[in-house]
Amino acid sequence: MSRAIVEMLERQFKTNWSEESWAPPLQKALDGVTSVQAAWVPPGGGNSIWQILNHLNYYNERTLRRLNGEEPSSSMDTNTGTFGDPGNPADEAGWAEAVQRAHRLAERFLASFAELTDADLDKPFGDTTIGREIPLWILHDGHHTGQIVLLRKQQGSWPATRESFG
C-alpha cells in the first residue's frame, strides 16, 4: 500500500501545526497567549485570536469526523457563526480549554493520517474526495495561523522580527 501522497499531506499538516518551517505553525502562534490577548479585537473590528481558534476548532472537528467516515456532529447556519464571541478576557480556563481542544484535534488528525493510504484519498468526502479536500483544509488552517500571528504583532505579543525557526 502506497503512502507517498498521504505522507506529503501529513508533513504539510505537521508543518502547519507544530513544526517550524517557512511560516510559524499554529501551536507556536498560540504558545503563551493569555485570555486577555486572545479576546483582544483589533481597532476597527475584525476577529479576535479566540474567535479564529473557535473557527479552526469547529472546522477541524468537522473535517476529522468526515475523514474518519463519521457524520459531523453539529452544523452552523453561517460561517460567521463558527467564530463565536470574541472571548472573555478574564476567562483563562475557557481560553486554555480552547487551546487544549486544538491540541487534541491535532493528535487525532495525526492518528488518522497514520491509518490512511494513498488509495483512501479517492474515497468520498462530502461532495468531493479526501484527496481533494485535505490539501484545501491544510491551506485554510495556515491562512488563519497567519491571521493569529498578525494579531499578535499588532498587540506587541509577537516578536517584530524572527531570524530563526524553532
From TrEMBL:
Gene3D superfamilies: dinb family like domain (1.20.120.450). Residues 71-82 have a biased composition (Polar residues). It holds the Pfam family DinB_2. Residues 69-92 are annotated as: Disordered. Residues 26-148 form the DinB-like domain. This is DinB family protein. The lineage of its organism: Bacteria, Bacillati, Bacillota, Bacilli, Bacillales.
